[in-house]
């Protein structure tokens, strides 16, 4: 199935206890695309500024990502983010952020992408998410992300988006903030009441929770001693999940559970190296091997 | 196999967002014994004061716990602990503590218990742990717990204890404090270098990690929306693990992994109700049913 993602493309500067990188390719839609690419063809819808290096465009193209929806805004600058991780690296501290082109109008979905069947709306203003979604003719599966800013300031718009999607993938802090529920099972149920038929709550190094109508599934993160750079881990998780679901073309509870495992494994690759290096050369075979090992680890009777 | 536990017996007062109880039976050895009892006969070695209610003694006897090692100290008072849980209830705040009889000499292991094969040394001064261990003639499996106080103030004594046991079950904060390693896999490996051939790190609501020579296993906690009282969850976890291991009489990697699942399920019963009520009436069949469900939840390929 065709998988479309819309979200941010950024130029990142990142510091972790293990080193730092400056001016590298990043952004939610980029991590998602790199993560989903081994599973299924990916269509990217996003905007960049005139300063976006051609070299970065080549990196995306080389991963096989369809760039027909990548719009270069004349007179604008690309989104830039600078962040720092310390201690257990569970949360990024934003050092500097320049929204630039992200503060302008949303990108358009090109006509060639309007037949996309699986759609991931990475984090942006919830009204823009709905406008983007409206441009897809007959999606089979629509999933969104969001962030604390919209939960706090754009709650009505966000609830309208939640009523329009099939699923949501967010982190634990956001789930608690959105629902006022401290317990994540209660939080997931409360989010389902807003509309999505499934909810995935990412818990960083502690794994992820999937709530469907029938059941709750919780799995741990893959044990990883060498965490170098957590940037993009959540988007890589979503990319692995949605890439798998789009490839399967089936979205029932059992397939969602299997997708959860793929998302977990994909994120584990992402954090092992700086920026996109953990995902860059990963093949389907690499992922399958690690999925099998994680499945064995969890198989206890 | 005969399972011996030595640790504290307390009279607890506990407040959580869901209610409070006052003057109830508690303590590490009590939770452990209640948790292990469905798996195997339990021998309890501990001291109480003259004020210890006969009613509490009956509660222990009714669970089938062998009280030949329960010593009542004339002129002493029973250990008392008062604690409070707030918010996500992941950590207890100690409101008041009176060591009383716990500040005196350690209990003696009665001759009838000296042939015990599986031994759990619940948290106490590490030198006392070794003195107690020395009274067991030919243990097959010895496991200890510890706490921040000894890690900080009695490091040499603790390292001597670690060199003498087969395994340790501690929480994530203690593992980090003991080793200086933030990553729990690194921390578990560092603790194995101190002597124990296996290390279990409890992560509260986030599950547990088992490190053996060959492998790392991480499993989540059983998803539980109705957490009433986390008191004794860690000791219940240890009781479920060691009870299962003692019943199996086998301590290889695969059996340890299966024990990890039993510990997880046992802890999930403990936290559902106040004080010992979550464990009190649980049978082996109750545990087996929940183990099977958790095993199914984790079975994803």
Describe this structure in words.
Two copies of one chain form a homodimer. Helices cover 37% and strands 25% of the residues of chain A. Chain A has 301 residues and is of the alpha/beta class. The first copy, chain A, has a single domain (3-168, 228-289), classed as Ribokinase (UDP-N-acetylmuramoyl-L-alanine:D-glutamate ligase, 3-Layer(aba) Sandwich). Chain A has a nine-stranded mixed β-sheet, sandwiched between helices. Chain A has a four-stranded mixed β-sheet with strand order 3-2-6-7. The interface between A and B is medium-sized, with 34 and 33 residues.
Mean pLDDT of chain A: 95
Rg on CA atoms of chain A, Å = 18 Å
H/E element order of chain A? EEEHEHEEEEHEHHEHHEEEHHHH
Q: Largest interface, with Cβ-Cβ < 8 Å? A: A-B, 34 and 33 residues
User: Which stretches of chain A of 5+ consecutive residues score pLDDT under 50?
Assistant: none
Oligomer: homodimer
End-to-end gap of chain A: 35 Å
Helix content of chain A: 25-40%
At CATH level 3, the topology of chain A is UDP-N-acetylmuramoyl-L-alanine:D-glutamate ligase
As a percent range, the share of strand residues of chain A is: 15-25%
Widest beta sheet: strand line-up of chain A: 5-4-1-8-9-10-11-12-13
